[in-house]
Design a protein that fits this description.
alpha+beta, Structural Genomics Hypothetical 15.5 Kd Protein In mrcA-pckA Intergenic Region, Chain A, Alpha-Beta Plaits, 3 domains, four-stranded antiparallel beta sheet, 7 helices
Length: 237
Amino acid sequence: MRLDKLLSALGAASRSGCRDLIRSGRVKINGVPAGSGADRVPSGAEVTLDGQALDTRLTRHVMLNKPAGVLTAREDTRQKTVMDLLPPVYASLECMPVGRLDKDTTGLLILTTDGELAHRLISPQRHVDKVYEAKVEGTLTGEDQAAFAAGVVLSDFTAMPAALQIMGPGLARVTVQEGKYHQVKRMFGARGKPVISLRRLSFGPIELDETLLPGQYRELTEEEAAALYAAAGMTHA
């Protein structure tokens, strides 16, 4: 990849600003001052800016413990989004949320720069499980479990069969394989059990890292990324 394009993708500056950085001698490739923005960056080369090594990976996969009150969106002119919780480099690399969590829903949110991976993971045809912890009004019963297993009928569609595990009178874990707008809340609402709080615990093979406080993030490990690609029917490079 051209050096100026790489630096711009990493958010170092605009394309023209990156060329200025290079001309001023502030950028080196494997310890050698870069000649121009057209210089090619070999795979595995060390690129430094003002003596600091840059993380030149263009593909990133992130686990975020989403807090309440934040939109699952790449940008919004009026409200805080999940991208505002991450360093600017992720926006520069066009990292995107995989699916969405409602504004007041918390827990595991995966973000990736791989659009095809994101598309496959949220496709109902892939049957990727999403597990939520729900606190609801009222007492859950075996009838609720049977209704979830059969597929809850909503006003505009019938939800795919889901597993409902009752953890207490108003506490449950629910596993779904689709993620339509407010779906889990609507499923409980259709059973007369309004949701008080909803938290996602896992997405496919990825479980929320409980050491992450709300609003904190970390990148997926190589093993986690490989498992995620496998769940999407893809090969992890």
